[in-house]
Design goal:
With 449 residues, the protein is α+β, with helices and mostly antiparallel strands. It folds into 2 domains: 195 residues, D-Maltodextrin-Binding Protein, domain 2; 218 residues, D-Maltodextrin-Binding Protein, domain 2 (3-Layer(aba) Sandwich). It has 19 helices and 10 strands. Strands 3, 6, 7, 8, 9 and 10 form a 6-stranded mixed sheet that branches. It has a two-stranded parallel sheet with strand order 1-2. α10 crosses α18 and α18 runs antiparallel to α19. The N terminus is likely disordered.
């Protein structure tokens, strides 16, 4: 979680120096000439950011002669697909999609090529790459491991509060709740009508990464809690602050729809879009879905703000992905993959990407008043990113195993099969076991990334 600003500055200077000679004549078309006719493969998700990229792909293919084949995979199956390919050294996916919590696993196993190999090559490196133009928290969190950059931020999220302005106004509220406590005690009772099938809030909580990250972890940071104590590296769910956040989630459940533990992102977004709930905390990328009259009834009733603050302040969720290069792909496909990644994440394409429905990691694009007006979610999103919030899911390679533990016991908590305190104790014990086995307490592994 260390800030890597100095590293980014040094790398940027290196790129600028290396690109001086090429700055006059470098072009994507010229850089791609040796790879014209090459086909590469990238993983896409069924989300707005990837649909936006798909709209831009023909331009890249026309300029470069490189064919980008895409495979749309459900998020839940993505890591498994990548891991199977990597362990077999198959090189099927040249452009590797890496979640914020997979970067440690992928990089430490040698599955990704450090991008310095490409951006220090003046034949491949666009002199306008400008690593300092990315939001630092996004480049550091999604693309950097052990002081090396393995990916460029592509599909980027901040947790936001989406709400139905008309429902809130009807209940007597002129603005959204500023704090979680206000949401629970003031807003929720007035916005919930079980007989009419209308509820104040929906927290996507389906068992899996949605439960462990979007539901469970979301309630720790704002209340001052955490999965791991950053000083001792001991499991921290039995701390008063962590228990306060998890108990808050239980208290809020009576204002959520029945079966909330089966809600994934689509179910939560659709509940708001169809007027079944008044508020959700969801990723910024879902704004386009909620604003689309084909999928949403909200129209002018759609409101968006930062997530509510907790006793520890504004600690909204942070999520997203980077695109990196498969270490087992042939050299020509690696180079072609890098050219695509560099282009799709560039400052030059940022506005096109945002207008097509994506969320860019570039700071410059959100300074444009026209973008702010057309996409209101960008203002609270930028505010959340500029807060420099901690990564609310640990990035160490053992996260997938820990996530499964949280998903199971966190679901049992919500269903009342285990108390909050007992569930927290169970997760603590299992996390300690996983981290001990991995060598975090005997000096074999660094404790924080």
């Amino acid at each position: 979680m260390k800030r890597l600003g100095a590293l980014v500055t040094a790398l940027t200077l290196c790129i600028c120096i290396g690109g001086i000679g090429a700055a006059q004549g470098w072009s994507l078309a010229e850089a791609a000439k040796p790879y014209a006719g090459t086909s590469i493969k990238a993983i896409f998700l069924d989300r707005p950011g990837y649909k936006a990229a798909a709209k831009l792909l023909p331009e890249f293919e026309k300029i470069t002669g490189i064919k980008v084949n895409t495979e749309v995979i459900p998020y839940e199956n993505t890591r498994e697909k990548i891991v199977l390919d990597m362990t077999a050294r198959g090189g099927e996916y040249d452009v590797v999609l890496t979640d914020v919590v997979w970067i440690g696993e992928f990089a430490s196993n040698g599955w990704l090529v450090p991008l310095e190999k490409f951006y220090n090559d003046p034949k491949l490196a666009d002199p306008a790459l400008n690593l300092k133009g990315f939001f630092p928290i996004l480049l550091d969190s999604f693309g950097t491991w052990d002081k090396k950059i393995y990916g460029l931020p592509f599909d980027n999220y901040a947790g936001l509060l989406f709400y139905n302005k008309c429902m809130l106004q009807k209940a007597g509220f002129s603005k959204p709740p500023a704090t979680w406590e206000e949401l629970l005690k003031v807003y929720a009772p007035k916005l919930t009508n079980p007989k009419a099938g209308v509820y104040a809030f929906a927290l996507q909580s389906r068992r899996g990464e949605t439960q462990s990250a979007d539901s469970f972890m979301r309630m720790l940071w704002p209340f001052g809690g955490s999965l791991i104590d950053p000083k001792t590296f001991e499991p921290n769910l039995l701390s008063p602050a962590s228990l306060r956040g998890l108990q808050f989630r239980q208290d809020l459940m009576k204002y959520m729809p029945p079966g909330i533990v089966d809600y994934d992102h689509n179910e939560a977004v659709n509940a708001l879009a169809q007027g079944k709930v008044a508020m959700i905390t969801e990723w910024s990328a879902f704004y386009t879905t909620l604003a689309d009259p084909k999928s949403s009834k909200l129209g002018n009733c759609l409101g968006v703000a930062t997530e509510p603050a907790g006793p520890a302040g504004l600690k909204g969720a942070l999520g997203g992905f980077s695109y990196g290069v498969n270490a087992f792909s042939p050299p020509e496909r690696q180079a072609a993959a890098y050219l695509f990644i560099q282009w799709i994440t560039s400052e030059a394409k940022a506005k096109d990407y945002v207008r097509a429905g994506g969320v860019s990691a570039r700071m410059s694009v959100y300074k444009d008043p026209a973008i702010q007006k057309a996409f209101p979610f960008t203002v609270p999103m930028v505010k959340a990113w500029e807060q420099g919030n901690p990564i609310f899911r640990p990035r160490f390679p053992e996260w997938p195993e820990i996530s499964e533990v949280i998903a199971q016991i966190g679901t049992e908590m919500m269903l009342g099969k285990v108390s909050v305190k007992d569930g927290a104790a169970q997760i603590n014990a299992k996390v300690k076991e996983i981290l001990t086995k991995a060598g975090y307490y005997d000096g074999k592994k660094p404790k924080l990334q």
